[in-house]
Amino acid sequence: MCRVVAYLGEPVFLDHLLFAPDNSLVRQTYAPRRLRMVNLAGFGLAAWDPYSHDVDTPFVYHTDAVPVFDTNLKSLSQKLRVTSVLAHVRGVEYGQGTPVGLQFLHPFLYEGMHVALAHNGNLARFGEMRPLLQPRLKPEISRLVKTNLDSEWIYALFLSQLDDPSANHSGAELADALIAALENLAEVRRECGIATTSGVNLFVANRHAIVGARYVFDFGCDQEGGPAKAPHQLDYLSLWYSIGRQYTRHEGEWKTIGGRRDASVVLLASEPLTQDESTWLEVPEYSLVSFDIGGGRPNIQSRFISV
Amino acid sequence: MEKNLLNELSPDDCSRLLALGHLHETTAGEELTRQGTVGYCLYVVESGELAVVCRVPGNEEEILETVRPGTLVGELAVLDRRPRSASLRAQRPGVVRIIDLRSFEALALEGGASGYRILRVVAASVYVRLQASRMAVAARVRNAAAAMCMARAPAQELSWLAASQEVARVLGELPAFSGLGEGEIAPLARKMETATVPKDTELLLPPCPEAAATLLIRGAVSPCLQVGEGLAISLPVVAPGGFIDYTCVLDQSDSCFWRTRSQSIVARIPAQVFGADADSGARLLYALCRDMANALRSTTSLAMHLGMTWDESGLRASENRRSRLPA
To answer: Do B174 and A234 make contact, defined as CB atoms within 8 angstroms?
Structure first.
């Protein structure tokens, strides 16, 4: 399991998402509040700065170091103000030979594309699924796949659902593609006879939109026919959001203030960035939320997913 | 609407409950508990009024309800051990009785027949609030969110078989049964029957005269509410170890139906094992209370989400997507 944060709206210092809150993403690498494991397998982000060259292409930062000790990241995050961010800390099951390294780090963003994806969860028996997924990828996307990691293949499958993967897309278009990718995964799982709990909380972002899907295939089932035994498998993967006029330090805590009507910022995260969860709401299970900046303010859409 | 707790209890039981707490005089505007903090106390309003105040994202406040003398509040955070979902603020000077968690648990679990009766009243109170929260979700969906709905699924009558020995092992691993000892779980499992249900099936559960509760052993099941012709809204999912039908235990009626989200195994438990005379009755009823408190919290969150995400523009978008609703 991993931890993820996405942000869209008024310019914000990266530091205010990654380091400053009392349950910041970097703190979640070693002390997540809603996960019974640490996330030490690397860190990555894609962020869009409206004043940078080629504004639709984000700058990307990946490190396999533990980010709390990354002084370069801390220094950059205190200087960079961005309007859209997707950041991820990677956690893997211990001692199962899961590959670790720079090439496996989220968010995934292929050259020439403007939308990035991060994944929280894992696909059971993914090795059996891969040959059946290959023909479902667009040839020009298939050529870009570098690893055998389920998350990267989900990204490739998601891009393959877009008519023009390198174009800029609205939140609704990204949401449609995300659901189509989940439908493809569901079909392949059926073909392979896979009915084991597999979390696919997905986050996608570009300069104008962020989308989050909260979905677990065959929640509550393990391979042997009993209940999912690991304690974290008895909890549906979490996904939260917060929306307001401003994201700021208020009464000692980082939070959104101002109501939805005047909203100009939105955060989407695998768990709230603050101890006080009162300014956060959970995305319902088996559903998706998308946030667009249209006319300068985020527009929210919520949809039920059944695949 | 809150039930007047003191009216539901006999004078003796009421005295036993109130004797656990100490009196606190409130001043107008005083905040007794703050949303987001951990709860270790329950409150009984003796005089005056308390506002249940909820901050929603964006830091706006909403008064969920005003509670009056005789009402028990603050029990959710105590039951599910999660941060308080709302603040309690005195509307005017008054008196509240503050009962700490350990005293309440000791009375409910080890207080004999009287403790059991008090726990049962608390359970009924949580159930009534859960039903009200489900109705709030349904009302919001009827107003707007067709895109949050799904088509009704085929229903299936269940084939019950005596529970295998494996069920006892599984029960021992489920968090909901952590309060029961090994010596209690095996006899409980022997009284259970199980049924396997495919994914995306609506459960036809035994009618109430059979007096049984249903527990989820494996998979996932959602309570659902019909919100239109052939359309339903799915409420927060129940995980293994959660209860999916318990109206017989509480002598209540249910407004929802149940649908599997994964291939599932459900178990039927005779209602009498929840009774005051049963060895594990109080502990099972307490586990059910905690489960309902958890469901109430997540259902309230769903209602808030629907209010947050569905406005007029959302309604238009949902109408545009109606033709693409998942089957």
So the answer is: yes
